[in-house]
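Researcher: For the record, we're logging two predictions in this thread. I'll number them. Prediction 1 follows.
Model: Prediction 1, sequence and structure:
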Amino acid sequence: MEKVSRFRRRLLVGSLVGCLALGGGALMCLSGDGPAGRAPVAAPGAQAGSAVRAGTPAALADLAELVDERESRVRAHPQDARSWAVLGAAYLEQGRRTADVAALYPKAERALRTSLKARPRNNADALDGLAALANARRDFPAALAWGEAARKAAPKRWTTYAQLIDAYTGLGDYKKARKALDRLTALHSGPVVRARAAGVYWDQGRREDAQAALADAAAAASSPAEQAAWLERGGELAWERGERENALRHFQEAVRLDPDMRAAQAGQGRALAALGRTTEALSAYRTALAEQPSPQYALELGELYESLGLAQAARVQYDLLRTLVREEAAGGVD
């Protein structure tokens, strides 16, 4: 029974019928149409460049185009500090999206440090990027140090406060995280700020406020990849609240908008397993893990196999888990 219950402890109970429930009793019905009245979409490389500079998600294909463009740029102009910083941020986002952190996180660090070498003073672009990289590696003291250096270099640069929120949260200093959020909201507004606010509300136990902020962020997103990311986070929050069907709808819509959103595919696997749809759950997990070999997905798939009595299949996933953890450690991840 213990083998079965260990996985089932992850499967919270709950359901909600109809549209996605938001804070305050509002509803957001998911349809096949994007937000009305959007401006024309920019070229992929330009769109991804704007996204990584603002710390918002970008589509993998757009990221690849941005990387190619910036690699060509720095080869021709090796002292272009801004291009090196954008390239480093793009490598970091690629690493997050693909789980190839052993290769891409060190490349991101080299690019960001090259940017600092090219412009040692007042280079908030590179300092911001190094703070984001340290947060991704879960090195929160380093993230705080880089973030504070970026803040001193450019006190009104709003993206820095997003990195400080993550660093303070990682260090367990929620009071300072809230102060950083207050500064962020005073400097900027928009979907990414609402999503950051949702994270702070979530940590404070203000689940309805977090849900409403994420719904607002998804509704105002400027690209399908960004909208999918905020919907995926909304699915995680619905899952934590025990709303299995609601979580599944969030994850499904996120995958529809961005088929490369592997976190949402793994979320589908989690919700489907909780709903007893194990064949579909296994398929969702396998797809997510094949395209984004994350230790978390390997662990959850292994536990699902174990709960189904498939001990050998579970051991394969646990062996993979150990390998993936070693690879992430090689990329500097704690």
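Researcher: Logged. Prediction 2.
Model: Prediction 2, sequence and structure:
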Amino acid sequence: MKSYTLDDLLYLMNRLRDPQTGCPWDIKQDFASIVPHTLEEAYEVADTIERKDWPHLQDELGDLLFQVIFYAQLGKEQNSFDFESVIDGLVTKLIRRHPHVFPDGELTAERVGGELTDAEIKANWEAIKRQERADKPVAKMRVLDDVPRTLPAITRAEKLTRRASQVGFDWGAALPVLDKIEEEIAELREAIAEGNLDEVRDEFGDLLFAQVNLARHLGINPDTALRGCNQKFERRFNYIEDQVDAGKGDWHAYSLDELDAWWDEAKLKGL
């Protein structure tokens, strides 16, 4: 049985986009229309890993790779870039950002020198990225300029606070951030009491932002933590549903206290 290669995938993509004989759906797509699919595929990869569904991870990674291939084809059609230039730029950048592995800037260089700690590697990485931003041939960039606005809100909030911390605008520990969260809760309570929806929305955003900042200080990925919480809620809610189905079969036949008691049972069972 034939085993297809990367070259075959690039050829397939070219065929799909052929104006005369390609796929009508693929032909209609552009950079913007593909973005929602890219985000969906990335989340499906993350979900598969979190569920440890290793048999399906290969398929999901293939779907995600196809997104890159699609963008590269669009770039090639516009004479902007192609898949080869994407790879060349990526390898060049990674060599530059790993001087502890490629000390002379060559891909085949043997590693020399002492071992670096994770903190030292991370600090070097960020320093190199700052220099890269400074070297870009554009007008003076603000500190937060290249944090993409299209990122999911939680991810962008984490990146904004991390970037600000690199220039010293940050609390030195987690506890002051926790104090800030309590302050934001008080302000949210006040806005709710006043009944001003715009103020409620604004204060609720401040509260979420402060919580994301706390997650960063605690070394927790907030998106991962929230997805884990979603899964936990689903498991426990499913347990409640099982009890309802095994009993009267009607949710409205049970009080909230009764439903909540089953929730507590689910917790005790480790769900």
